[in-house]
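In response to the reviewer comment on reproducibility (Comment 2.3), we provide here a single inverse folding case reported in full, input and output, so that an independent group could reproduce the run without further information from us. The structure tokens appear first.
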């Protein structure tokens, strides 16, 4: 059987596989179907007893027999056959439902665009294929299927977004084994790890949840490819995840870190003088922010625009960064 499935997948999906897990569908004969069949049989016997004269009265005609056979036997049988399948095959990239040697349904996990559950049936769709699974037939596999789909974000449930991660499937003794692929440590994570001991709270992002206007830049520096601004204080707004007080807090001895900064523009303004377009360099940023006061700060995606006043000069800077880290040592 598996050799035929491999041929079909190679032909239809241009996909070859040697590693797999093949599970037999838990298809059970309907308990209602034998009862309906016996009922129809009794109706047929009754009809022949009437037509043969054994029963003198005629209670129903041939149309009742035909109706009973059609709606009590053929229709339930057709619905049962439509849902029925023989095997469920897991591969590293595809989920395959096998109805017969040549009749299969399949979807590639990573290409699934739609997930729905209705009338005890899970329906998965990608751009070209649809796979439907009648849940009572896959009870033993339902947990595995959902775990795979959740890890790949293919249940499209926002409440399960935290489940999304890189995984790899493997198979041993016909069991499905799901390995989580550990993502390499990012630059942001490395910097945060190095700052944990010094700062009580340190988080990436959340630039809309803090206010650094009027903060004093105690020191500006460049280290390991990143820009560091040591600030005397910042306001931590009530919607910041580290603020559980439901009111704006003042944090002392704060740090603002730009990860992998790319300086786009540095413009220096002094009253009574023409604007100076300085060299867009880290040196220009450090010299014109050290011992300054932040007068404006805005973030649009990865682009940061801010102004810092030093003495009588105000310098406007535009910097593109990979990430922003914000931390502080204590709450006032």
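Designed residues, in position order:
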């Amino acid at each position: 059987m598996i050799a035929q499935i491999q041929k079909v997948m190679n032909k239809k999906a241009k996909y070859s596989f040697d590693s797999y897990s093949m599970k037999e569908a838990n298809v059970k004969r309907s308990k209602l179907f034998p009862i309906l069949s016996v009922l129809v049989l009794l109706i047929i016997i009754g009809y022949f007893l009437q037509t043969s004269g054994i029963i003198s009265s005629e209670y129903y005609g041939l149309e009742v027999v035909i109706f009973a056979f059609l709606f009590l036997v053929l229709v339930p049988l057709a619905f049962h056959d439509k849902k029925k399948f023989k095997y469920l095959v897991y591969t590293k990239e595809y989920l395959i439902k096998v109805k017969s040697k040549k009749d299969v349904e399949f979807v590639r996990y990573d290409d699934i665009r739609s997930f729905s559950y209705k009338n005890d049936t899970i329906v998965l769709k990608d751009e070209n294929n649809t796979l439907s699974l009648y849940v009572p037939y896959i009870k033993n596999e339902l947990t595995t299927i959902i775990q795979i789909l959740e890890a790949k974000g293919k249940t499209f449930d926002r409440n399960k977004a935290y489940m999304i991660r890189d995984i790899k499937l493997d198979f041993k003794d016909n069991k499905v084994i799901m390995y989580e692929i550990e993502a390499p440590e990012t630059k942001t994570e490395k910097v945060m790890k190095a700052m944990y001991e010094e700062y009580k709270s340190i988080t990436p992002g959340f630039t809309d949840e803090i206010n650094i206007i009027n903060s004093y830049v105690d020191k500006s520096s460049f280290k390991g490819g990143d820009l560091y601004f040591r600030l005397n204080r910042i306001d931590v707004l009530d919607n910041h995840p580290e603020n559980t007080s439901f009111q704006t807090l003042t944090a002392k001895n704060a740090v603002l870190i730009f990860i992998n900064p790319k300086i786009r523009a540095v413009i220096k303004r002094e009253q009574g003088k023409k604007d100076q377009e300085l060299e867009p360099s880290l040196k220009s940023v450090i010299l014109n922010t050290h011992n300054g006061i932040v007068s404006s700060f805005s973030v649009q995606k990865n682009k940061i625009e801010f102004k810092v006043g030093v003495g009588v000069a105000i310098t406007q800077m535009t910097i593109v960064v990979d990430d922003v880290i914000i931390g502080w040592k204590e709450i006032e």
